[in-house]
Here is the input.
Amino acid sequence: MASVFSHAVAALGIGACFYRPRTPKRVWVIGALCAVIPDLDVIGFGFGVHYGDFWGHRGFTHSLLFAALLASVVALLAFRQAVPGFSGFSLWTYFFLAIASHGLLDAMTDGGLGVAFFSPCNNTRYFLPWRPIRVSPIGVSRFFTHRGLEVVKSELFWIWLPAALLVASGWLIRRRSAPSA
Ligand SMILES: [Zn+2]
Here is the structure.
């Protein structure tokens, strides 16, 4: 995995493309939380689930279908009332992209097994051809090592920086297109 914070940051960066001035903040908070949920699959390690299994790490919870299902559940349950500036479809699309970005970023890491994007139809694990992100250790204690520092540096550069650029670009575009007083 990339670390949980970076997945949340990626979701916030994607959110910048959907930003509307009156959007309630809980949309972004829930989007960031949703982007972390696929990694709950690590709980399975404690119950004897193997990494490469259907429910293993980077398995079904990292698939596109899981992203679509979770996005639907969240959009239906958490946002039954209309959200200002959002159609139901654009809200779903934001949550879908926020969750699907998780698997995409994991597939850009340089370790572990690949991501089962097409589970449950096909449990083959895939990486992207380009994998610049250092894989994050599973477990907090191993984070505070030299390798942990390398991971933080690579995530800052490949995830946090692009997310910040998206947020800044969105802000600049809105500023330029706002009618001058
Ligand atoms: Zn993951």
Remarks:
- The mean pLDDT is 90.
- The chain has one domain: 4-173.
